[in-house]
Amino acid sequence: MEKVSINTEYIKLEQLLKLASVTQTGGEAKLMIKEGLVKVNGEVCTQRGKKLRINDKIEVNGKIYVVV
User: Fold this and answer.
1) CATH, domain range 2-67
2) Could you give phi then psi for residue 13, rounded to 5 degrees?
3) CB of 47 within 8 A of CB of 8?
4) pLDDT in tens for each of the 68 residues of the chain?
5) DSSP letter at 24?
6) Which one of 3, 38, 39, 66 has the largest count of C-beta atoms within 10 Å of its C-beta?
């Protein structure tokens, strides 16, 4: 489980994927989310603007990221 640190109240899913280096661009992140390849707290999420807060868990490519 990899920790992704934020300094704000929330981060959008698309931004988190870039911050965690899962994708290099917003376009890549958008495609992954649209294709249903990303889970948020155990459920597939197709909403790229989904607001993630502390302790939310994101699963992509078999890896888990937690917002801290």
Assistant:
1) 3.10.290.10
2) -55, -45
3) no
4) 999 999 999 999 999 999 999 999 989 999 999 999 999 999 999 998 999 999 999 999 999 999 99
5) S
6) 38
Residue type, 26: G
Distant-in-sequence, close-in-space partners of 62: CB < 8 Å, separation ≥ 6: none
Listed in sequence order, the DSSP H helices in 1-68 are 13-19, 26-34
CB 66 within 8 A of CB 20: no
How many residues make up the chain in this entry?
Answer: 68
Q: How many CB atoms lie within 10 A of CB 41?
A: 11
pTM metric for this prediction: 0.90
